[in-house]
Write a structure and sequence with these properties.
single chain, about 250 residues, alpha/beta, Rossmann fold, 7-stranded parallel β-sheet, 8 helices, about 45% helix, binds NADP nicotinamide-adenine-dinucleotide phosphate
């Protein structure tokens, strides 16, 4: 069981990149942490980091494409932690492909992980909080691809746009239960899953040219935004998406 009086947060897809940074930041804020991966052995480094911050770490296997996996992971986390205060829907997969070439299998994968998984994880969290009669909060990682159009990002951008609408829908539906639901929409952040694009000739220069601050975001900047939305400082904020994009979508 977690230490008495400590709050617990669950970050999905925490093995690397933005999810790992969020898990470490929340552990430093005093949360006991549940972290997931489709391959839990990949969580060793983040678990060590959480424990080094003096927090407890619970690691679970989770594939958000599977309802059975969602149900099992949430049951394991609640059983191990006693209660869950905060859910961070970070698990996601990118897709850069011209719309003319997107296959039904591509579409299924992108929608299942980024949208369906986020909805049914949120539903489980909502059920848990309502049943417990306790307030809580959900933060989902959307993307600027859900706000502005860019070629070859259609399926991914559609999924992330829907995550932002889901955020508003769930926020108003669950407000009466004291559950806040928000999202963050990062622009380009350098993480392992995005490294491929830097090998494309001219990609970095053309991507940076569209960003007024002339740099990509960092995982720690995304984690800082999530920490804020999950904190009491954001107690009157619900249904919102906080955009972190160096000015990209203001152009
Ligand atoms: N990097 C960017 O530029 C950027 C910009 C805007 C938004 N985002 C969003 O931010 C989030 C994190 O992105 P990232 O760049 O840090 O990506 P990442 O390094 O690839 O991390 C994504 C995480 O999602 C998990 N995941 C993938 N498929 C999953 C599945 N079926 N079930 C459960 N977990 C799954 C992965 O876990 P395992 O492989 O360990 O299972 C991984 O830990 C994503 O939602 C992404 O769309 C990223």
């Amino acid at each position: 069981m977690p230490s008495a009086g400590r709050r617990t947060a669950f970050v999905t897809g925490a093995s690397q990149g933005i999810g790992a940074a969020i898990a470490l930041a929340l552990a430093r804020d005093g949360f006991d942490m549940a972290v997931s991966s489709t391959h839990p052995e990949k969580l060793a480094a983040v678990v060590s980091g959480i424990e080094a911050a003096g927090a407890r770490a619970v690691r679970v296997a989770l594939d958000v494409r599977s309802q059975e996996s969602i149900d099992k992971a949430m049951a394991q986390v609640v059983s191990a932690c006693g209660h869950l205060d905060i859910l961070i829907n970070n698990a996601g997969v990118p897709l850069k492909k011209p719309a003319l070439d997107v296959t039904p299998a591509d579409w299924q994968e992108v929608i299942d992980v980024n949208l369906k998984g986020t909805f049914f994880m949120s539903q489980q969290m909502g059920r848990h909080l309502v049943k417990a009669g306790r307030p809580g909060c959900i933060v989902s990682i959307a993307s600027t691809h859900g706000l502005v159009a860019l070629a070859s990002r259609s399926a991914y951008g559609i999924a992330k746009a829907a995550v932002m609408q889901m955020t508003r829908m769930l926020a108003i539906e669950w407000a009466e239960h004291g559950i806040r639901v928000n999202a963050v929409a990062p622009g380009r952040v350098d993480t392992p899953s995005r490294a491929w694009s830097l090998g494309e000739p001219g990609y970095r220069d053309s991507a940076l040219a569209r960003i007024p601050l002339r740099r990509f975001g960092t995982v720690d900047e995304v984690a800082a935004a999530v920490r804020y939305l999950a904190s009491p400082a954001a107690s009157y904020i619900t249904g919102q998406t906080l955009v972190l994009d160096g000015g990209l979508t203001s152009c």
